[in-house]
Amino acid sequence: MKEKILNRFIRYVKVNTKSDPNCECVPSTQVQFDLANMLKSELEELGLVNISLDEKCYLMATLPANTTKKAPVIGFISHLDTAPDFSGESVNPQVIENYQGGDIALGTSGDSITVADFPEILDYIGQTIVTTDGTTLLGADDKAGIAEIMEFLTYLNEHPEIEHGEIKVGFTPDEEIGRGADLFDVPNFGAEFAYTVDGGKIGEIEYETFNAAGAKIEIHGRNVHPGSAKGKLVSSIAIGEELNRMLPFNERPEYTEGYEGFYFLMHFDGTIEHTTLEYIIRDHSKEKFECRKATLSKIVAFLNEKYDNRLTLSMKDQYYNMAEMIKPHPHIYDLAVKAIKKAGIEPITKPVRGGTDGSKLSFMGLPTPNVFCGGHNGHGKYEFIPVESMVKAVEVLVNIANLAVEK
Predict the structure, then answer these.
(1) Which positions ≥6 away from 353 have C-beta within 8 Å?
(2) Res 319 pLDDT > 80
């Protein structure tokens, strides 16, 4: 299986599927259909039924049950797109076989995955590691998840002695820009519960996410020649800098971990006349999340009073902590933990410090925790994945399907 899943993964990552947050259409980029159509053909070859690829680039299919025993209908979901903040075009992966430790040069780019910066690479000595060539991201987020789901389906087809109930698979567009679940047809999908296969090192199982909001602040200044500016010029840039300094300095992503929330300034663009700031606000605690939003609102109100109403704040909730919807169904989490242990892996339960389709899907009536796909350092040129982790991910999916059958 190792060689098969490696070849499959490399085939998928070479397809550019970068999403675009500045496009309001769905999908945000038509290139996502290139991979969706490839997968649709492969699902047909595998003999799955009820295969559908709609005009919004949501791909769904069903693997029928091979047992008459009682079993829940389980879904497995991954996303087609790669992150918009780094190049996903002309991906040229390099394969390091039997990694023996030390830094890994990324092609001829002059960059490296260093042990000093990424000590976790040493956990994979003796394994086969796939990296970038230093010029693009790799796309293991989430083409590793896609490859693992497809290899899982192939394995079940090749091993009919493994009992399983009805399996649903779904591939979504635009997850990286927070829209992956927006148009997901939960009733049509037909699963009782599901798992996203996305992100995270080997062994991780996650059912908690941030509560998330996005905020945009527009600041209007007044430009006057600096030689005669006293008492007249109002710099929107300076107001923006003042606003950012008023937020807690140690509550930024680079200073937080675990359950600690943050304010993250994603975009700052300004002139004297007009400045725009865009933040994302995150916290696992609903109470602290509301406090964070209130803090930003109070700062804007204070600056509006100070600078004669020159600031406009628009803030919108993006998703909520899916633990609220999954905790009432502990068997979903317990099943994944048993499947991971059966694969000889120690489960690692940790909160997701990011977004996932599972957040929205859980609130749409489809409880959907996340199981690992094995990738590290997504969204950039330092991304890598051990092939052995991908093989184990497939084993975990097979175990979930089989363990769910009533014994």
Answers:
(1) 210, 257, 258, 282
(2) yes
Catalytic residue among 81, 141, 198, 204: 81
Residue 370 has pLDDT above 80, yes or no: yes
Q: pLDDT at residue 116 above 90?
A: yes
pTM of the entire predicted model: 0.90
Dist CA 77 CA 185 (whole Å): 13
Structural domains of the chain ordered from first start: 2-209+321-403 (3.40.630.10), 218-319 (3.30.70.360)
Is the alpha carbon torsion for 224, 228, 231, 237 positive or negative? positive
SS (H, E, C) the chain: CHHHHHHHHHHHHCCCCECCCCCCCCCCCCCHHHHHHHHHHHHHHCCCEEEEECCCCCEEEEECCCCCCCCCCEEEEEECCECCCCCCCCCCCEEECCCCCCCEECCCCCCEECCCCCHHHHHHCCCCEEECCCCCCCCHHHHHHHHHHHHHHHHHHHCCCCCCCCEEEEEECCHHHCCCCCCCCHHHHCCCEEEEECCCCCCEEECCCCEEEEEEEEEECECCCHHHCCCCCECHHHHHHHHHHHCCCCCCHHHCCCCCCEEEEEEEEECCCEEEEEEEEEECCHHHHHHHHHHHHHHHHHHHHHCCCCEEEEEEEEECCCHHHHCCCHHHHHHHHHHHHHCCCCCEECCCCCCCHHHHHHHCCCCCCEECCCCECCCCCCCEEEHHHHHHHHHHHHHHHHHCCCC
Cβ–Cβ under 8 Å, residues 162 and 70: no
As a whole number, mean pLDDT of residues 67-87 equals: 95
Our answer to whether residue 81 is catalytic in this structure is yes
Strand partners, 73: none
The two three-digit tokens of residue 26, written as one number: 């769905």
Is 175 one of the catalytic residues?
Answer: yes
What value does the mean pLDDT of the chain take?
96
| Active-site pick, 142, 175, 176, 204 | 175
Residue 237: band (very low, low, confident or very high) from pLDDT cuts 50, 70, 90: very high
C-alpha Rg value of the chain to the nearest Å = 23
Q: Contact 58/185 with Cβ under 8 angstroms?
A: yes
